[in-house]
């Protein structure tokens, strides 16, 4: 990865971290407990509980994504950044642009 690509990646990581934090904040609001005193019907309550479960799964995924982004941001200047942990070949820049926290090249990730 050349220096220009690294600068683009740093910028992209920063933007994605901010977006992901905003997304997590919104999801946390949507995963609040459903109060039993709310006067909604039984079917509506079941639907709300199902939606809450789906949102909690999405929230876990978003938190994992944030961890990966923060890891990439912290280690982007390390000499081994962008090198596959398994085969030791360089990870394609396009893969890093899409998934900055990738530790493996496309071949080793499969």
Topology:
Elements: H1 3-30, H2 42-75, H3 93-98, H4 106-109
Helix pairs in contact: 1-2
What can you tell me about this protein's structure?
The protein has 110 residues and is mostly helical. It has one domain (3-80). 65% of the residues lie in helices and 0% in strands. It is built from four helices and no strands. It has helices at residues 3-30, 42-75, 93-98, 106-109. Helix 1 (3-30) packs antiparallel against helix 2. The longest helix is centred in the middle third of the chain and has 34 residues, at 42-75.
In short:
This protein has helices at residues 3-30, 42-75, 93-98, 106-109.
Rounded radius of gyration (Å): 19 Å
Q: What is the helix tally?
A: 4
Q: What's the total number of strands?
A: 0
Overall morphology? elongated
- Along the chain, the helix and strand elements come as HHHH
Distance between the termini: 22 Å
Assembly state (oligomeric): single chain
What characteristics describe this protein?
110 residues, mainly alpha, 4 helices
């Amino acid at each position: 990865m050349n220096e220009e690509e690294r600068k683009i990646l740093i910028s992209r990581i920063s933007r994605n971290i901010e977006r992901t934090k905003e997304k997590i904040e919104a999801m946390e609001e949507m995963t609040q407990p459903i109060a039993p005193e709310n006067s909604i019907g039984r079917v509506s309550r079941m639907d709300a509980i199902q939606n809450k479960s789906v949102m909690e799964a999405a929230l876990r995924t978003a938190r994992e994504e944030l961890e990966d982004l923060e890891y990439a941001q912290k280690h982007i200047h390390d000499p081994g950044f962008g090198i596959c942990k398994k085969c030791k070949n360089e990870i394609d820049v396009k893969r890093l642009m899409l998934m900055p926290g990738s530790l493996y090249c496309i071949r080793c990730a499969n």
